[in-house]
Each structure stands twice: as structure tokens, then as C-alpha cells.
Design goal:
alpha/beta, TIM Barrel, Arc Repressor Mutant, subunit A, eight-stranded mixed sheet, globular, disordered N terminus, DnaE2/DnaE/PolC
Length: about 1200
């Protein structure tokens, strides 16, 4: 029932902006409706600029506040940009009825799709004329064409515009009056009244509301300054003047307007005329095109299901087990009753299209994996009966709601299937879903600081005190961080900054696309929901939402797009309220890695691997998890997960599925006792360190696979069914109630559960205890269907890694090109499996990483695309090689003459040289770099000759070394120093190729390092000496504003994170640089499966090594005549390089039947123990016979 508008004062706000006007208002819709309620206003219009974002959400909030919402928009008119500001004129449109809603959707959609320019959607006049019905039109005061004409003194033009709008909207067109105290209103208001009297067009009074309270005008201006990238004190800030654009009371409006022309009464009249209200729509699915021979979607789905059942479960004689038949009929009955047959057909068809095009699809995602119909129609690839998954978790027969199937495609496959969808259903019926970008707490502080011109250092100090935890609000930060509150309380500058930051926080900032959601419908989508355009895709990882755990860590990579795409103005939640079909097309890089691995296996071994048929009890696969070799294993790569899996020592696929569910914030933070969380409990139960307790014999079958620990939501449903006598549909309702923590609903369910348990003789105390345990579980329990699907996917990746290691790691490297840190990690992993990395080569490398036989063993060759800044040059080199039938490039000039220099520019060629890709042509990188310009000129001449048809090196008849080919000589230049080579390799590829920077310090490392970085058994508080090269550093300010540092140290055995606190950093900061070889005095601990170092002292190794070397030890074998003959050479070195380091001889000799080692001190022969001397000694005696000691 609509509120009685006459019960309030005679005024309704009809021109109001919320934060959906994109940084033009700080007003949250809910706050607007609360303000209406407070002031006794029973209706209000929302007229955001060019859009009706999330309209269903607004209607829900208004209904809750018992306020009538009039939905509208302030639209921009095409071809009306003013000469002064360039801003287009606007018009206010309000929806009267269902026809008006349809027309408003079309107007806004076409404005965005066809008239988007300068960041704004513009409506063409022809669209207004076509879509005039069902709308109220207001002239938009000074922003409209009529107002502009009056202000320019052209009353004739103003009259022409007014007559035009009256012809369009008839009695529903009003001239808008506003009084904000602006100077131009002294001319505009009387002019508008005269025009009304002259033409007989009614007036309506509005206040152009952009903020709720007069005191918020500064916050409004700060938002405008932020949007336009200006300072708040800028003279050119284009915002509404004064402080009057706030939500005025009816009494305040009656003081401004005397209602002599009915301008106040007309606000109520218009509000009464606008009867449109949004109500949640029943789900509406597009028709699925049926093949010949089928009359209905229901019939065709049944056909596909039973065909799938024969394939998956059928015996040799074609019979299908009764259990399978019963489950099929149960699910089909629910699906058909709810009218969702078309939904399954649509999704199944999309997945089949992807596979037909050669792109993998994930085994399942979310609760859909619990459906046998989804399994049998190819939507999912895991058997719900085998893994004991529940259909009711996916589709509850006792609660009608749209099924939600998210699909994991490869990133390329995702776009291909999107193209297929548009082709099949029509571009007018398909759109992506909007994601409104909002300002977080840190960003709000930074933006507020920028517009207030607060020094960057001060802003930075404040922003860094806000916890980085996703979703942390300013309110949370002030409650948690005392230092933040203290700073703001004592500094007026910070107080104003925080005031404005609060006004910006959480407000809409930009329009982007949801990473995966796509809407498909019958007919024109623009007539059902308003559309917009965006070229931005949401940057946050798309979370797998779940009622019990909103902090899930499943995610997909963010994407980018250069072209504008059509999106709905309703987000994914509002789309469902509108009853439209939404499917999430998600791009999962792991699937692309699997596809590439399978391709490489086929190429190298000539076999096809069907992952659905690999053994699920493979010991070699489980060892990957048990040994923590997690690089590339889907969802199991983090150091924390690695640590838990090594502790768990999984032996079944059930263990992996359970850990996929448990390794989430809820379970990790669930306190079981003083020292353990839910994951620890699970591990202790598995290994018998704690007795398994099923609480009641009837629960053993449900909890057996998780050692008596409630891990899954489905277990709560099954316990409720078995013990509480709930139907599975009712059990799913209980699960949702637990997630929402509604005390009244929970108490109702608890009573029903205890009553049901009593009916099968379970005593009240035990039933109560079990229900309370299930309620506690709600903090961390997870969807088993999703965990099973992703657990199986993780197992598949581990299987490929275990059995086809080199192909798998090569595939992952190709998926990570551009991420040098990630590539370094993967090459380290490859070395751990004994796989050798071959350097890039212009004659042997592909554009991507490849598998290559080298000296009788398979190795990974670095791809040319892995070299930074080479870009298209990688493909150009490979293409040139193909044109030459694989004949190698002979020299630098041969290369530049053969490749397309438009693709491989000067910078790309330099990077290829610096990374060592031309070493086999000439190992003198310095000389090659010195001749780059000369070589490019030579190549340009050859390229030009080809272009002009005069032959040249692109000729098909060209062959290497043929008579008459003459290359210029290379100009001489100094070789590149070894240290510089390594720096280039590290910078351009991410890891060292020629050798390790520690190689020249290997003796020192072996002699003086008391801690190797692969060590995991360390003593707390003990000081160790760690020697390595610093591979990365990250300066950081602590909470007191002092500088500290995080870094990574690498030695021959591995890597370790290190931390340098402020007091130590102040003393040693000049030594803590990337690529520096250092000796660190550290305390060590093992955390999350990795070694963590706390630095106490720092020393550059090359500066302290002379003080560290106390003795040189030479080993001599007295039984080796050739070695004894070299002692004279040793003596000559002693004479030539006298110094301060003593020398000991360890002489091994056979005395009788025994081998003895005699230690002899060489008196009066101390030497210089530098690299030159030690290298000479090694050359004479062999590297194993020379060492240093400290």
C-alpha cells in the first residue's frame, strides 16, 4: 500500500542525487530515505545523472523506510554542449508507470550505447520522441535548454523549447523553479514564471539536492574536486555555489516559495501520478533452441540426462543402477517443477561449445557440482554420488530461487564462448553486468588529502595506519588502531581530512564490469533493464560468495579491456531481483595451463591424457602434496597451505577436498583450544593424536571422511536430516539461517531439531550439544560441492606435475610470462626436480618457454617473450627463422636483415643481447651492443630492398653462407663485465642465466655460513650467519613513521624472507640493496612453511671476507705422483703472493695398510687469500683440494 502523501506537509523532493551520480553527491540512498522518514516526507524522487544504478536495491530500502520512491534520472541531451563549459544541457525524467519504466530503460540504454562521449551518456532527440509515454518531464531549471535560453535573454527560443516538450509530454511537462540564492536565479526565476503564464505550462518547485545537511556542502565540493582532479581551493572548481543544495524540509521550501502558482502543490500531484514501483520478478529464462524431434525443453533435457546416465553409469547390458535412477528422477522433478529445464540446457550448451572449440572447462564450481543432472549433461565433471554431494544445497525444493551455475573457462575460451553466446542469442539480448567501483578507506584518505592539498608524506602516514584487510572501514580502523585515533585527535589538519574521507568512503566512484557475470534474455534487453557502457573490469579478485564465509579465498584473475562494452545498470544482486538469467563466465588460468600441458605431452609422448580417467589414489601424486612441492598446484600454492599439507600428509582425495574447505579465514581463526584452530584439530584427528568423536553412532557415516570434524555445510544438512528428522530442503534453510545468525530463527530451528531427535530417542542434552556445535561450525564450514570440484582440479594439476613434470612447469611458465618474480619461483622449482634451464637463444628459443633435448636430457629453454621489453620482437625472430626453414642466424647483421624491424625495434634488440640470447653468435655482449645501430641500418636497407621488390634477405631463395653474401665487420668494444651480465639477466628475465652471483663467493659461503636457506630446524633466539644475494627489498614505514625494510635473501639452497626493523635499518640501510652479496647476522624461525629471518647486523661479504679468512687449507695426496709434482708451482705462488693468511697442508698418505691424513703447518709462508690466488691454487690442485676456514 502506498503512503498517504497528504498526511505530510505539501512538498515532495523531485530533484535528488545520490552517490550513484558518481562523485557528485555523498548521499547513500538509505540515508536519504531515513531523512524523509525523519522529516515526515512520505515520498521522494531519485534523479541521478544519466542512470538508474541498482534501482531494485533502492526500492527495497525505500519500502523498508516506508517511503514511496519515485524513480527517475537527470539525462544529458545530445548536441547541447555550452560554449563556456562544454557541459550538455539536462532534463529530468520521472517514471509514472510500467510503460514509463520500459521507455526510461530504452532512453538510458541508448544514451549510453549510442551517445557516450566525454565520459557522459547523451540522449538523442529522436529517442525522446520515440519513448515519450509513461514519463513526467521537468525542465531542469538552469541546467536545461529552457533555463539556458532565458539566461541568455532569448525568451522566444525558451518558448520554442517549452512548446516542444509540452508536445512530447503533454500535461506531464513542468517548468522547474529553484531558489538556491545563486545570482543567475534573479533573472531565471521571474523569466520562468512569465513563460509559465504565457504558455499555460505548470510550475514545480524543486531543490537540486546533492547533500543531506547544509554542513555537508564542503564534503560535496571535495567530491567534485576529487572527480575533476582539482584542489578544493581551486578558483575554477565547477560545482554548485553556496550551501543551499541540501535536503530541505517542507517548511524551508514553503519559506522559499509562496505556492502562488501551485509550484509546491504540484510536487505532490506529480508524486501521486507516479505509481510505478519495482517488485521482485519471478525468474524468466530465454527459450533454448531445440533440435528437431523435440517438442519441449523438458523433453530434451530428459533425453540428454538419460543418454549421459548410460555413458556414466550404464552396465554392458544398458541397465542403470536404481540409486542413480532415483536421484535423476528426484532432481528432474524439482527442475521441471521450478521451470528450470531451459537453464540447464543453456549452460550445458555453452560448456559443450567451449569443449568443441578446444578449450577446457573446469570440473565444476559452487554448489552445482552437487547435481547429477549437471554431471550427466556435461556441466560438471565430478560424480556427486561418489563424493556424496547434495542436490538440495544447489536447488532447494522448498525455496524457489534462480539456480546459480558459475563456469570456469580458460581466459581465451571465456571470450570465445561469450562470442558464441552473442551469436546464438543476439547482441540485443546479451550484456555483461555492472560492478560499481567504490572508494575504500585508504583510497578515501588519499583522495581527501589530495583535494585538501595536505602534504603527501602526512597523508601517507595516515593511510598506512589503516589495516590492509579487505573491507576495513575507517570506523574499523579508528576502533582497532590507537595511533590513528591519536593522530587525528591531536591534529586539526587530519580532522578535516578524515571528515572529507568519511564523506567519500564507500561512495560510487566509477562504473566497471563484473569479471564474469553475463545476462541472457529473450527480446531486447534495453526494454527490461537500463544499460550502460564501461571499458573497465573490476580490479578486485572475484570472490566465490558463500553464506557462511564471505572471506573466501577462491578467485580469478582480473582482466583489462580497451573497448567499451555494454553492461546492465543493475549489479548481479539486482539482476536476480529483476528475474533475469545471469551466468558467471569466469576465466581460470589453471585451465589454460592444463590445456598447454596436455598439448606438450601429446607433442613429446604422442599420447592423449583424459584427466577424468586418471587414478585418484596415485601415490606419486600424493607425494607432491606431502613434500610441499606446491608451485603450480591449483589453490595449494601459498606457504601456509604448503605447511599444513606437509603436516597433514594427505593419503586420499578426501583429505585434499577437506583441506580445500578448511584453509579459509573462518577455519583458520576458529579457536578449538589454546593452541589449535579447526585445521589443527583435523590434522590431529587424522594422525591419531586425538581420539575421533562422532558424538552419536548415527553420525559416523556422515563425519567419517573428516575424522569427526564438521567441515562442510552439507554435513550440517545431513545431521539435521538424520538426527533432527528435517527434509533436506528444510536442512538447507537451517544452513542459511546459521549463516545469517538470526537468533529468533535459530531458536525455532533448534527447538524443531531437538524435538525431531527426541522422536528417535536421542536425549535432549546430546541433541542440544550437537545443534550448538553445528551453529558454531557456521563460522567456518564450507560448501562441499565447491571444495570437491576444486579439490579434484588441484589433484589433476598435481598428477600432471608428478608424472609430466617438465611439460607442466613449462606450461605454467608460459602462463606467467611478464611476472618475473613468479618465473623465478618456478625455475627454482624446476631445478628442485632436476630440470635444467637453458638460456634464451635467437636460434633455438620459441617465443614461449619450450621443452628441448640437451645432452641427452629434457630441459626447458627460456622463451624470447620472457625477456622484458622484447615484445613483438620475439615473434618476429621466430617468424624469420621459420621463413629460413630453421637455418640459424650467423651473426648480428644476418639477424637484423632477416627479421621485420617494425616488430623488433632497437630496444628489443638491445634486450635480447643483454639477456644473452645472442651469445652463441658472439659471447661478447659489449661488442654486440656497440654495433646495434650499425646492424639496424644494415637491416633497414635489406628490409627496404624487399619492400621495393629488389630481393634481399627475405627472399625465398636465400640460403645461409651462399656466395656473394657480405656482412659488415663488427666494431671492437670491451666485453661486458660479469657482474653487469648478471644484473641484466636478473632485470630482464627475473633470474640468473649464466651463473649465480654467489658463485665467486662459494668458498666463503661454505666456510662461514652457519645457516643455509633450505634449513627448517632452527633454534629460536640463536644468532646465525646467513650469506646470500639480496634479490628484492621493500622499504616500509612502521606505525611510528620510522623506516624499516622487508627483503628476500637467496643462497645456493633456496630463499628466505628477512625483516630489518627501524633501529637496524638506520645503521645498515646503505648496504641493503638489490643484487648485493651480504653476510647477515640473523635470528631465524620457520613460519608458514618458510624460513623467516630477523636481521641484527649486515656486512657486504667482499668487504669483510679478508677478516673472516683465518686459514687456507690445501689437501695433498702423497700417493698421487702428479700432484706431488705440482708442489713447486704451489711454492711459486706462495713466493709471488705473500700476505697475512697462514696455510695448512692436509697430506693424505697410505702408511702400511691404513690411509692417514697428516696436518702440516707451512711455516713462514702466509699468503694473500684473495680470489686470484685461490683460483690459481684450485687450477693446480683441483677445486676439492682448496678451502678456507674462519
Amino acid at each position: 500500500m502506498q503512503p498517504d502523501l497528504r498526511s505530510a506537509l505539501e512538498f515532495v523532493h523531485l530533484h535528488t542525487h545520490t552517490h550513484y551520480s558518481m562523485q557528485s553527491s555523498p548521499i547513500f540512498p538509505g540515508d536519504l530515505f531515513a531523512a524523509c522518514k525523519k522529516q515526515g516526507m512520505t515520498a521522494v524522487a531519485v534523479t541521478d545523472y544519466g542512470a538508474m544504478f541498482n534501482m531494485p536495491e533502492l526500492f527495497g530500502q525505500a519500502k523498508k523506510a516506508e517511503v514511496k520512491l519515485i524513480m527517475g534520472a537527470e539525462i544529458y541531451l545530445a548536441g547541447t554542449g555550452s560554449r563556456d563549459s562544454g557541459k550538455p544541457a539536462t532534463l529530468i525524467l520521472l517514471i509514472r508507470d510500467d510503460i514509463g519504466y520500459r521507455n526510461m530503460c530504452v532512453i538510458l540504454s541508448r544514451a549510453a550505447r549510442d551517445g557516450f562521449s566525454n565520459g557522459l551518456p547523451h540522449v538523442d532527440r529522436s529517442v525522446l520522441e520515440e519513448c515519450r509515454d509513461g514519463l513526467v518531464c521537468l525542465s531542469a531549471a538552469h541546467s536545461g535548454l529552457i533555463g539556458r535560453a532565458l539566461l541568455s535573454g532569448n525568451e522566444t527560443e525558451a518558448a520554442n523549447f517549452a512548446n516542444y516538450y509540452r508536445d512530447l509530454y503533454g500535461e506531464h511537462f513542468y517548468l522547474e523553479l529553484q531558489k538556491h540564492g545563486a545570482p543567475y536565479e534573479e533573472q531565471l526565476v521571474p523569466g520562468t514564471i512569465r513563460l509559465s503564464e504565457q504558455l499555460g505550462i505548470p510550475l514545480v518547485a524543486t531543490n537540486n539536492v546533492h547533500y543531506l545537511d547544509r554542513r555537508d556542502s564542503g564534503c560535496y565540493r571535495a567530491m567534485i574536486a576529487n572527480r575533476t582532479k582539482q584542489r578544493l581551493n581551486s578558483q575554477n572548481l565547477q560545482c554548485l555555489p553556496g550551501h543551499e543544495n541540501y535536503f530541505k524540509s517542507a517548511a524551508e521550501m514553503s519559506l522559499l516559495f509562496d505556492n502562488a502558482h501551485g509550484e509546491l502543490d504540484n510536487t505532490v500531484k506529480i508524486a501521486e501520478a507516479c505509481s510505478y514501483t519495482f517488485i521482485n520478478k519471478d525468474p524468466h529464462l530465454p527459450k533454448f533452441p531445440l533440435p528437431e524431434g523435440f517438442d519441449s525443453e523438458k523433453e530434451y533435457l530428459r533425453h540428454l540426462t538419460w543418454e549421459g546416465a548410460k555413458e556414466k553409469y550404464g552396465a554392458a547390458d544398458g541397465t542403470i543402477p536404481e540409486e542413480v535412477k532415483a536421484r535423476i528422477e528426484l532432481e528432474l522433478g524439482v527442475i521441471e517443477k521450478m521451470g528450470y529445464s531451459a537453464y540447464f540446457l543453456i549452460v550445458s550448451d555453452l560448456i559443450a561449445a567451449s569443449r568443441k572449440m578446444g578449450y577446457s572447462v573446469g570440473p565444476g564450481r559452487g554448489s552445482a557440482a552437487g547435481s547429477i543432472i549437471a554431471y550427466l549433461t556435461g556441466i560438471t565433471r565430478i560424480d556427486p554420488l561418489k563424493y556424496k554431494l547434495l542436490f538440495e544445497r544447489f536447488l532447494n525444493p522448498e525455496r524457489i530461487s534462480m539456480p546459480d551455475i558459475d563456469i570456469d573457462f580458460t581466459p581465451v575460451g571465456k571470450q570465445k564462448v561469450l562470442d558464441y553466446t552473442v551469436q546464438k542469442y543476439g547482441a540485443e539480448s546479451v550484456a555483461k553486468v555492472v560492478a560499481i567501483g567504490t572508494l575504500g578507506a585508504k583510497a578515501a584518505i588519499r583522495d581527501a588529502g589530495r583535494v585538501l592539498d595536505v602534504p603527501l608524506k602526512a597523508v601517507d602516514q595516515l593511510a598506512k595506519l589503516v589495516p590492509s584487510r579487505p573491507g576495513t572501514s575507517l570506523e574499523d580502523a579508528f576502533r582497532e588502531v590507537k595511533e590513528l585515533k591519536r593522530l587525528v585527535d591531536t591534529d586539526p589538519q587530519y580532522q578535516q581530512l578524515v571528515q572529507y574521507a568519511r564523506a567519500m568512503e564507500g561512495r560510487a566512484r566509477n562504473v566497471s564490469m563484473h569479471a564474469g557475470a553475463v545476462v541472457i534474455t529473450d527480446g531486447a534487453l534495453e526494454e527490461q533493464v537500463p544499460l550502460y557502457v564501461s571499458n573497465k573490469i573490476e580490479t578486485e579478485e572475484r570472490k566465490y560468495a558463500d553464506e557462511f564465509d564471505q572471506n573466501d579465498i577462491d578467485g580469478t584473475k582480473a582482466e583489462s579491456s580497451d573497448e567499451k562494452q555494454v553492461v546492465t545498470q543493475f549489479d548481479k544482486n539486482c539482476i536476480e531481483q529483476a528475474g533475469l538469467l545471469k551466468i558467471d563466465y569466469l576465466g581460470l588460468e589453471t585451465l589454460a595451463v592444463i590445456d598447454e600441458t596436455l598439448r606438450l605431452i601429446k607433442k613429446r609422448h604422442g599420447i592423449d591424457i583424459d584427466l577424468e580417467k586418471v587414478p585418484m589414489d596415485d601415490r606419486k601424486t600424493f607425494r607432491i602434496f606431502q613434500e610441499g612441492k606446491m608451485a603450480g598446484i591449483f589453490q595449494f600454492e601459498s606457504s601456509g597451505m604448503q605447511s599444513y599439507m606437509m603436516r597433514l600428509q594427505p593419503t586420499t582425495i578426501g583429505d585434499i577436498i577437506a583441506m580445500s574447505a578448511l584453509y579459509r579465514p573462518g577455519a583458520l581463526n576458529a579457536v578449538i583450544d589454546e593452541h589449535r584452530n579447526a585445521v589443527d584439530l583435523f590434522i590431529d584427528r587424522k594422525h591419531g593424536r586425538e581420539e575421533i568423536d562422532y558424538m552419536h553412532p548415527m553420525l559416523e557415516e556422515i563425519l567419517k571422511e573428516t575424522y569427526g570434524v564438521i567441515v562442510y555445510q552439507e554435513q550440517v544438512m545431513q545431521i539435521s536430516q538424520v538426527m533432527g528428522r528435517f527434509s533436506l530442503g528444510k536442512a538447507d534453510n537451517l544452513r542459511k539461517a546459521m549463516g545469517k545468525k538470526d537468533p529468533k530463527l535459530m531458536q525455532k530451528f533448534k527447538e524443531e531439531f531437538v524435538e525431531g531427535a527426541a522422536s528417535i530417542d536421542v536425549n535432549k542434552a546430546l541433541a542440544t550439544r550437537i545443534f550448538d556445535l553445528m551453529a558454531e561450525f557456521a563460522g567456518y564450514g564450507f560448501n562441499k560441492s565447491h571444495s570437491a570440484a576444486y579439490g579434484v582440479l588441484a589433484y589433476w594439476t598435481a598428477y600432471l606435475k608428478a608424472h609430466y613434470t617438465i611439460e607442466f612447469i613449462t606450461a605454467i611458465l608460459n602462463s606467467e610470462i611478464g611476472d618475473t618474480e613468479r618465473m623465478k619461483h618456478l625455475t627454482d622449482e624446476a631445478k628442485g626436480f632436476g630440470i635444467f634451464m637453458l638460456p634464451p637463444s635467437i636460434n633455438k628459443s620459441d617465443a614461449l618457454f619450450s621443452v628441448e633435448e640437451h645432452k641427452g636430457r629434457p630441459c626447458i629453454r627460456v622463451g624470447l617473450s620472457a625477456i622484458k621489453q622484447v615484445g613483438g620482437g620475439a615473434r618476429a625472430v621466430v617468424a624469420a627463422r621459420l621463413r629460413r626453414d630453421g637455418k640459424p642466424f650467423l651473426n648480428l647483421f644476418d639477424l637484423t636483415a632477416s627479421v621485420d624491424l617494425r616488430a623488433m625495434n632497437r630496444k628489443a634488440l638491445e634486450c635480447l643481447i643483454q639477456a644473452g640470447a645472442l651469445d652463441e653468435i658472439d659471447p661478447n655482449r659489449g661488442k654486440l651492443l656497440a654495433n646495434v645501430d650499425k646492424a639496424i641500418k644494415f637491416g633497414q636497407i635489406q628490409n627496404k630492398a624487399v619492400t621495393l621488390g629488389q630481393g634481399g634477405f627475405f627472399n625465398d631463395d636465400f640460403s645461409d653462407g651462399q656466395a656473394g653474401v657480405h656482412y659488415p665487420d663488427l666494431d671492437n668494444a670491451e666485453p661486458m663485465p660479469e657482474s653487469e651480465k648478471l644484473q641484466y639477466e636478473k632485470r630482464l628475465v627475473g633470474f640468473y642465466l649464466s651463473h649465480h652471483p654467489l658463485d665467486r663467493f662459494r668458498r666463503d659461503w661454505e666456510a662461514f655460513a652457519s645457516l643455509t636457506l633450505d634449513k627448517r630446524d632452527v633454534t629460536p633466539s640463536k644468532l646465525y650467519k646467513a650469506i646470500g644475494v639480496i634479490v628484492s627489498v621493500k622499504p616500509y614505514q612502521d606505525r611510528k613513521g620510522k623506516q624499516m625494510l622487508f627483503g628476500v635473501l637467496e643462497d645456493f639452497t633456496g630463499k628466505a624472507d628477512f625483516t630489518v626493523f627501524a633501529s637496524v635499518y638506520e645503521q645498515y640501510h646503505h648496504m641493503l640493496k638489490t643484487d648485493e652479496v651480504v653476510m647477515l647476522s640473523v635470528e631465524a624461525e620457520v613460519k608458514d612453511g618458510g624460513l623467516k629471518l630477523l636481521v641484527r647486523e649486515v656486512a657486504p661479504l667482499k668487504k669483510v671476507r679478508s677478516a673472516l679468512v683465518k686459514k687456507v687449507v690445501l689437501r695433498i695426496d702423497a700417493d698421487d705422483a702428479s700432484q706431488l709434482g705440482k708442489l713447486q708451482q704451489v711454492r711459486e705462488i706462495f713466493e709471488k703472493h705473500k700476505g697475512g693468511t697462514p696455510v695448512d697442508f692436509e697430506v693424505r698418505a697410505t702408511i702400511g695398510s691404513c690411509n692417514e691424513t697428516l696436518k702440516l703447518f707451512a711455516r713462514n709462508t702466509p699468503i694473500e687469500a684473495d680470489d686470484e690466488v685461490l683460483d690459481q691454487l684450485e687450477e693446480i690442485l683441483g677445486p676439492d683440494n682448496v678451502r678456507i676456514t674462519g
